[in-house]
C-alpha cells in the first residue's frame, strides 16, 4: 500500500464535484489494475481503478512536464538536477495514514481518460466521471514528484515494465550514483 497527499487548491472556473485530497495506491492482481483509494473533500471515500495503459500515459505526460518545467542550469547536468529534485520530494513525503475503506467506498470509477493542466504553481489532474462530474487532484510540484514516485513503486509491485520511466525518477537515478 502506497500513499500520496495533495493539498486542496482553489479550483477556478470549473464545475468540479469532488476534490481529491488524499490517496492510497495498491495493485490488484486479480483485476490487473492499480486501485487508487481516495478521500474527497467533504469526507466521501471513492476508488479509482487505473489500467496499465492509462497509468503509463499519465506517467509519461507528468514526467515530460517535470523535465520541461525547470530552467536548465549551465552548472548542473539536467538529469542530475531532476534526480536531486526527485529525491528531495521523496524525502519530504510524510507518509500519512492510508485511506481507510472499512465500510467500502461510496463509489468506484474506471477512468478512460485523464485531463492534465499545468500552471507555474500547480499541476491539476482532472478525471471525468459519470453524469458530467469531474474529480480533481491538485498537486504542488513536490507533491507531483511524490505521486510519480509512488506510481513508479506501484508499477514495480505490479511487475509492469518500468523501462520507459526516466532514469532521474528511479531510485538508482543519477543523484544516487
Which descriptors would you attach to this protein?
single chain, about 180 residues, alpha+beta, Secreted effector protein pipB2 fold, eight-stranded mixed β-sheet, 3 helices, disordered N terminus
Query: What is the number of beta strands?
Result: 8
Q: How many structural domains?
A: 1
What is the first-to-last residue Cα distance?
A: 28 Å
Low-confidence stretches: 1-13
Q: How is the CATH topology named?
A: Secreted effector protein pipB2 fold
User: How many helical elements?
Assistant: 3
Describe the protein.
The chain has helices at residues 52-68, 78-92, 141-158; strands spanning 2-5, 18-28, 33-40, 45-50, 107-109, 115-118, 123-128, 134-139. Strands 1, 2, 3, 4, 5, 6, 7 and 8 form an eight-stranded mixed β-sheet that branches. The two termini are 28 Å apart. Helix 2 packs across helix 3 (141-158). The longest helix is centred in the C-terminal third of the chain and has 18 residues, at 141-158. By secondary structure, it is of the alpha+beta class.
Amino acid at each position: 500500500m502506497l500513499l500520496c497527499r495533495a493539498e486542496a487548491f482553489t479550483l477556478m472556473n470549473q464545475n468540479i464535484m469532488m476534490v481529491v485530497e488524499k490517496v492510497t495506491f495498491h495493485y490488484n492482481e486479480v483485476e490487473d489494475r492499480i486501485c487508487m483509494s481516495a478521500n474527497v473533500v467533504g469526507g466521501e471515500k471513492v476508488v479509482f481503478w487505473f489500467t496499465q495503459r492509462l497509468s503509463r500515459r499519465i506517467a509519461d505526460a507528468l514526467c515530460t512536464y517535470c523535465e520541461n518545467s525547470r530552467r536548465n542550469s549551465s552548472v548542473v547536468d539536467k538529469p542530475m538536477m531532476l534526480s536531486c529534485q526527485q529525491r528531495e520530494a521523496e524525502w519530504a513525503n510524510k507518509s500519512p495514514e492510508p485511506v481507510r475503506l472499512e465500510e467500502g467506498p461510496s463509489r468506484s470509477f474506471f477512468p478512460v481518460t485523464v485531463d492534465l493542466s499545468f500552471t507555474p504553481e500547480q499541476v491539476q489532474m482532472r478525471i471525468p466521471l459519470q453524469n458530467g462530474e469531474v474529480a480533481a487532484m491538485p498537486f504542488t510540484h513536490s507533491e507531483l514528484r511524490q505521486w510519480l514516485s509512488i506510481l513508479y513503486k506501484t508499477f514495480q509491485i505490479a511487475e509492469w515494465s518500468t523501462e520507459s520511466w526516466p532514469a532521474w525518477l528511479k531510485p538508482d537515478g543519477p543523484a544516487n550514483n
